[in-house]
Amino acid sequence: MLIALTGLTSRTGVTTTAVALADSWPGPQPALVVEADPAGGSLAHLTGADPHRGLASLSAATTASPGSRVGGHIWDHVQVVGRVPFLAAPEHPAAVSATLSAPVTATPHSSGPRLADLAVIADCGVLDPVSPAAPIIVGADVALVIVRGDLTDPASIGRQVRELTVGCRRCAVLMVGSPDASELTERLGVPRYSVGSR
């Protein structure tokens, strides 16, 4: 299962929400956070993890050996914060773009849990149709757009979400910071989940 998290603007809590979702994932499959924010990664820096181990090292390993497969290498590049395994993105946007654009071949064979048996939670940063993370969002089983509960124009936000998520299999807005956002649901015009106030 692939869940893509994204926001309409920066600083909406996409990374925090991805880690929290993975930490509280009910299973039965384990959850893995993939930091795929084209603006650059922050998880390694925030957690004191190795910034060179993650998507960039995985990409280098799979492109160095033609015919190499992601599933066979993925667990060599995963780090753990608390109980949450994650693939860190490089800090610099150009490095993230290059990593997200690198050709790889996926396979369920690996030394850890099979890639196909994971709940992959992708932090895709700001929602943008030309983003290197756009294929992840469109290809996800569900795309969750993180929106602050104190938004000023729900109808405009809903329209923007619908326009930017054309082609997504399933899409919903995840309201953060509003204990009762039910009144906004109709005006958003997009399925909504709610996370209580902070």
UniProtKB/TrEMBL annotation:
InterPro entries assigned: P-loop_NTPase (IPR027417)
Gene3D superfamilies: P-loop containing nucleotide triphosphate hydrolases (3.40.50.300)
Protein name in the entry: CpsD/CapB family tyrosine-protein kinase
